[in-house]
Amino acid sequence: MNQAALNLYRNTGVQGGVIDASPHQLILMLITGAQDRIASAKGSILRGEVARKGEMLCNAIAIIDNLRASLDHARGGEISKNLAMLYDYMESQLVQANLASDANILDEVSSLLAEVRAGWESIPVDARRF
Known about the structure:
Layout: H1 3-20, H2 23-47, H3 50-69, H4 73-100, H5 103-121
Helix pairs in contact: 2-3, 2-5, 3-4, 4-5
């Protein structure tokens, strides 16, 4: 399969997944997207691909910013406030990782995202209302 066809297939699959996804699933998709870009940035650091590293970290920061924008502070109370601070921290760490080409910082942020994911996945199905 050529690269253009592969990209079209990927884009179609993602768009179809977004259209059919619940708000809960969309958050999980955003977390996965951020983790994927951080992993790609780490690989770029290891290969010395400076431009690609910057692009992937910029994308990860944008995704985390969207996670923050999706917080409902009126209903989320302390949890949404804490998540907003955590997302701020993650973004600043990703900026530092970019400046220093530090893969260890990327591991830390990826681990934090994994904890957020685990918390999100532990929400009982009947409580996943928006």
